[in-house]
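Open question from group meeting: does this chain pack into something compact, or does most of it stay loose? Before anyone orders reagents, we agreed to write out a predicted structure and look at it together. Recording both the input and the output here so the notebook holds the full record.
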Amino acid sequence: MDVRNGETTSFSYDSWSSLGCLNEKLGDIGCIDMGILKDSTLSAAMMKAKRRRHRQPLLNIVESELQKQKQSRIETENDYCIVEGEKRLFSFEVPLQRNVGSD
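Structure tokens returned:
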């Protein structure tokens, strides 16, 4: 992900940090320990009340990654999903599927 404003990037499921997909690394407990909902956007996670210090070093690394994203945030631009080396505007639009046998 090429994160700009973080509004369409998933905190848990998208690979927005150098750690990759955080859900695979942290699981449910990591999100709970950080005080961030599992289905939060990266934007919501960046806007949380304050940075915490954790006992687990991995959680402190995630806090640092969040801080970096917050500092480089561009609120007026949308996030991009990079697929096979190409930049594409990320969108939640789902293409309509044609019903088989409806003709």
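Observations to bring back to the group:
The beta strands are 80-83, 86-89.
The helical segments are 22-34, 42-46, 57-71.
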